[in-house]
């Protein structure tokens, strides 16, 4: 899982599965958005937030990317505080790209 900074060792099985799904989305940009968001927030999300997070992750990556980038309006069903937190989360794409290529930032 390139880019993962959160260890799954101390996570419960549900959070481990979610962390894996976040870093294996299918579109690298969504791996970075969801993966880095999960690294930063997954351990502290409530059970209700985990439920909502899984519902959001069930959406198609192309749709998620367009909603997060603002090129398509977010469906009303996803206009929630958690989706807003995910959409406003700005992963460091430059750092991740440099790390992937083995270059110093």
TrEMBL record:
It holds the Pfam family Sdh5. SUPFAM superfamilies: YgfY-like. InterPro entries: SDH, SDH_sf. Keywords: Chaperone. One of its GO terms (biological process) is tricarboxylic acid cycle. The keyword Chaperone applies. The keyword Chaperone applies. Belongs to the SdhE FAD assembly factor family. This is FAD assembly factor SdhE. It comes from Rhizobium tubonense.
């Amino acid at each position: 899982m390139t880019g993962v900074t959160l260890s799954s060792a101390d996570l419960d099985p549900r959070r481990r599965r979610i962390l894996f799904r976040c870093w294996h989305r299918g579109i690298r940009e969504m791996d970075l958005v969801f993966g880095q968001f999960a690294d930063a927030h997954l351990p502290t999300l409530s059970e209700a937030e985990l439920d909502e997070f899984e519902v959001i992750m069930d959406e198609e990556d192309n749709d998620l990317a367009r909603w997060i980038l603002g090129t398509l309006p977010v469906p009303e069903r996803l206009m929630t505080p958690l989706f807003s937190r995910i959409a406003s989360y700005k992963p460091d794409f430059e750092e991740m790209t440099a790390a992937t290529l083995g270059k110093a930032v």
